[in-house]
Amino acid sequence: MTRDQTDHEFLSVLQRQSPATIQSLCDSIGITATAVRQKLMRFQAAGLVDRELSRQERGRPSYAYHLTAAGLKELGDDHAEIAAILWKQIMQISDENVRKSVLNGVKDSLVERFGACRDGNSLASRLQLLTSHLTEQGFEIEFASNSEPDGLPILREYNCPYHELAEEDSSICDLEQSVFSELLGVPVELSSCRLDGHRCCEFQVGESG
Asked: Matching Pfam families, A to Z (predicted)?
């Protein structure tokens, strides 16, 4: 299907809210319920969106919507250049024993690509540079303060530039974690992952205590 910027924004909001209702999508995007239903029907027909019946004691049935695997891939397709770097390196692997070495080479390439993010003179400024730069590249990413006492900043990534690859080899997630750590200059830990059923990947930034 042909996808324009408004389609991408709609899918992005849906992924952030997943599972989302028609009303929540209306409130977030600022369009009518009819327009939301039309988009959902089109994306369902394309296999990008699915729905589940929400329990309701009375009245009309209510549905909650979420992206399918194809929908997640659709969001990730904007990162073709990064995915190509990963695939080119990984597909050349002929021996499992050299995987770590190759992944280190990919990491160095990605750190060099996003190296300007290290120019910030504080962690907060580096986080801002990183999220701004990745957003310009099509990532759906944000950072927020942790509400817990002495909580560390959290990076939230709502789409994945290598979704299918990560499903086959989760060491790619370790690669992304190490890239973020080097760019930010502090330890970064993947604390929740979409591969485990979470709606987004969350990275804890910095060391506690």
From this structure: HTH_24
Q: What is the pLDDT of residue 43?
A: 93
Domain of residue 108, residue span: 77-205
Residue 87 lies in a domain: yes
User: What six digits make up the tokens of 192?
Assistant: 């929740």
Residues of the chain with pLDDT under 70: 1-4, 55-59, 76-84, 86-88, 146-150, 208-209
Q: CA dihedral in degrees (144, 200, 12, 162; nearest 10)? A: 120
Which of 15, 193, 169, 17 minimizes the C-alpha distance to 103?
169
User: Residues near 138 by Cβ (< 8 Å), separated by ≥ 6?
Assistant: 78, 79
Instruction: Indicate whether 91 and 126 sit together in one domain.
Output: yes
Residue 56 lies in a domain: yes
pLDDT number for residue 23: 92
Distance CA 85, CA 165 (A): 12
Residues 125 and 198 in one domain: yes
For the record, the structure tokens of 48 come out as 């990008």
